[in-house]
Predict the 3D structure of the following.
Amino acid sequence: MAAPDLGTAPAVWSESLFRPVRDGNAFEATVERLAQAIKLGVVPNGDRLAPERELAEALQVSRMTLREAIKALAEAGFVAVRRGRGGGTFVTFRPAGGVAAVGMRPDARSAHRLARVLDFRRVVEPGAAALAAERTLSRADRGYLLGCLGECEAAVLDGSHRIADSRLHLAIAGVTGCSPLVTAVADVQSQLGELLGEIPVLARNIEHSHAQHRAIVDAILGGDPAGARRVMEQHCEATSALLRGLLP
């Protein structure tokens, strides 16, 4: 499927940034692709995004997923949706410090920190989930994991949800019985929390997160290390996609 017509945007950028979403994190990956195009100036401030049909076809996602991604970007201040004649989705993003410019890069220290945290998490947390699934868990450990999962799913979408989310990830590391691993997960969750605090809480992402959390816990309780690792990797990548897309 051809990439959407972006007017003066170079075709190579269009083909790269609007390539089909191939993984299971369709919502998060769509947010990341659109936000990246906006931050790079491919779609400048004030310009209108391509029609929904074209974007959905180019990204190979459903119209509903695309609309929810656009809603998330609107909440984050990247776009504004206007109705009626002459309406559409218009870019409102302006980088801190001035007018948008093609090729602008975030502060190198911030970019390095983000990459460092996400890389660290991508190595540590899937391994923790796999190791937890290899353990013979006591009845108390199993109950604790399910209890933390339930608290996370029931938490209100504010600061309390982030705490409940971190507690579940720490519980997964905790049932391994490996103290250094718990310390590593606590460190990455602390840094991750600071980064997530800089972007909006997105209901669609939280729903997706809940489903992945449950799949991870099910794999752990079912003694499936490969499954636990695989879903945790997908879960980490979903969060990474949002942060790469929405952080300045």
